[in-house]
């Protein structure tokens, strides 16, 4: 029962230093967030000891009384939060949730059509090295060359030509709402299933600040750890109870063995929090922050320095900075912002002339900072720090000092020691 610092000082030091890093940097990776202490508590709990293959009330192991309560709560909360008839909260991650969705909807060799990876889609939507690209035939739709948006008439034409069995709506890097009604109409026209992967924008949907894909889609999958602000994991919901059996069996035993009950308990708590008024207020700050960032990065001085944002703005929690006209590439921008104390990731922009390991863009998101407490004043300041850095030739120490003022003002996990 000795503490971690005694048993394994090297790993204890990693935890310590990582807590310090999260406190000292401004986290702006669009897919990241900070979970509340209550979620950390479940994840570090004795529930990690429990095997519970099966589903509540139908387990292959004894002693599941308590974990059954946790999973039933998580299921009910997921259904209620997203207005779904069915939920499965067992997927270990977004990728395994997606593997289960395809497993349930189609057979090996059938065709899927999602947004191409180069234009903001996800690996699990048909990338050739991923299971989705290996098991299924893949057609992809892209963004319009002029608008850099998903134009539904183009998606329709592509769907009519390719006749996929599953159409995928959803993205990892795209700054606009999707037209779920139009996706549904296209799927119906060709007799395809519609699967929406709302991993990125699920928190906005939960807060009622983004159109919901649930009424339009056959199946909706999501991660729980991005805008939704919960533990690293996935879940699946559907309006269609008829798919329940297939989806459950695709998750277990199709994709997974024992569920991670400590994560499922943490998921239940995160879903409870996401149904509350404070969560909605937080998501409003997420959107406001992204909007302020887009505005600052399209101001005349930014445009003059070769900076822009993809589609000229954002409807969601992220901005895709377009550096095609800037001497600074995506990798250099990521490194430069790191020096200033801001963590982002380089990201290809649509029709990117630079190679994928370099790119001409960065993806910048606001969920983690909104969770940290940032509002419009702080996001205005962060946006100016970013614009000033990306314009080039700035005093890095001065920018680092501005970041430090913000991190000092909004302490992360006060009192927590790992
Ligand atoms: N789906 C989308 C749209 C994503 O952006 C991601 C993660 O980035 C995933 C699925 C996969 O989630 P995970 O990393 O939990 O497997």
Approximate strand percentage:
5-15%
Helix content: 40-55%
| CA radius of gyration | 22 Å
> What spatial form do the alpha-carbon principal axes imply?
globular
Give unreliable regions as ranges.
none
Distance between the termini: 16 Å
Largest sheet strand order:
4-10-9-8-7-5-6
Q: Averaging pLDDT over every residue, what do you get?
A: 97
**Which small-molecule species are bound to the chains here?**
pyridoxal-5'-phosphate
The DSSP helix count reads: 17
Structural class by sheet pairing and helices: alpha/beta
Relevant terms:
418 residues; alpha/beta; seven-stranded mixed β-sheet; four-stranded antiparallel β-sheet; globular; binds pyridoxal-5'-phosphate; protein homodimerization activity
Summarize the structure.
The protein has helices at 4-7, 9-24, 37-43, 65-82, 94-105, 131-135, 152-162, 180-190, 202-206, 244-255, 261-274, 277-296, 300-304, 330-340, 367-372, 376-391, 396-409; strands at 26-27, 54-55, 58-59, 86-88, 111-115, 137-141, 166-170, 193-197, 219-223, 234-238, 308-309, 318-322, 342-343, 345-346, 361-365. The chain is α/β, with parallel strands linked by helices and 418 residues long.
Description:
It is an enzyme of class 2 (transferase). Residues 4-386 form the Serine hydroxymethyltransferase-like domain. Homodimer. With 418 residues, the protein is α/β, with parallel strands linked by helices. It is 45% helix and 13% strand. It is built from 17 helices and 15 strands. The strands form 4 sheets. The chain has a 7-stranded mixed β-sheet, with helices on both faces. A 4-stranded antiparallel β-sheet has the order 11-12-15-14. It has a two-stranded parallel ribbon with strand order 1-13. The protein is globular. The model has no long low-confidence stretch (mean pLDDT 97). The structure holds pyridoxal-5'-phosphate. Pyridoxal-5'-phosphate (PLP) binds at residues 31, 93-95, 98, 122, 124, 170-172, 197, 199-200, 223, 234.
């Amino acid at each position: 029962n000795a503490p971690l610092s005694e048993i394994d000082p090297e790993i204890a030091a990693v935890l310590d230093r990582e807590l310090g890093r999260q406190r000292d940097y401004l986290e702006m990776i669009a897919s990241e967030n900070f979970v509340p202490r209550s979620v950390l508590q479940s994840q570090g709990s004795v529930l990690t000891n429990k095997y519970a293959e099966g589903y509540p009330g139908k387990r292959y192991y004894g002693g599941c009384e308590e974990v059954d309560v946790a999973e039933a709560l998580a299921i009910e909360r997921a259904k209620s939060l997203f207005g779904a008839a069915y939920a499965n909260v067992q997927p270990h991650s977004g990728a395994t949730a997606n593997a289960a969705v395809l497993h349930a909807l189609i057979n090996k060799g059938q065709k899927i059509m999602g947004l191409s990876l180069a234009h903001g889609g996800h690996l699990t939507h048909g990338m050739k090295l991923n299971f989705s690209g290996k098991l299924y035939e893949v057609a992809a739709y892209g963004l319009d060359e002029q608008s850099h948006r998903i134009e539904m008439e183009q998606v329709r034409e592509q769907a009519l030509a390719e006749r996929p069995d599953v159409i995928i709506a959803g993205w990892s890097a795209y700054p606009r709402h999707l037209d779920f009604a139009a996706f549904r109409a296209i799927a119906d026209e060709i007799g395809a299933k519609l699967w929406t992967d709302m991993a990125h924008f699920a928190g906005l949907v939960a807060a009622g600040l983004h159109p919901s894909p649930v009424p339009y889609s056959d199946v909706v999958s999501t991660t729980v750890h991005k805008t939704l602000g919960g533990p690293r994991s996935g879940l699946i919901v559907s309006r269609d109870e008829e798919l329940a059996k297939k989806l459950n069996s695709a998750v277990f035993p199709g994709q997974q063995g024992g569920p991670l009950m400590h994560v499922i308990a943490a998921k239940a708590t995160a879903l409870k929090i996401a149904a509350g008024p404070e969560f909605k207020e937080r998501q409003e700050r997420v959107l406001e922050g992204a909007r302020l960032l887009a505005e600052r990065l399209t101001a005349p001085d930014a445009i003059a320095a070769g900076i822009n944002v993809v589609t000229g703005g954002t409807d969601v929690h992220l901005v895709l900075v377009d550096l095609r006209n800037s001497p600074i590439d995506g990798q250099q921008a990521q490194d430069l912002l790191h020096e200033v104390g801001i963590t982002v990731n380089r990201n290809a922009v649509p029709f990117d002339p630079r190679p994928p390991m370099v790119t001409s863009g960065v993806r910048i998101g606001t969920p983690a900072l909104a969770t940290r407490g940032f509002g419009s004043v702080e996001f205005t300041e962060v946006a100016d720090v970013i614009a000033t850095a990306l314009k080039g030739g700035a005093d890095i120490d001065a920018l680092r000092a501005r970041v430090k003022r913000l991190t000092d003002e909004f302490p992360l996990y006060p009192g927590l020691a790992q």
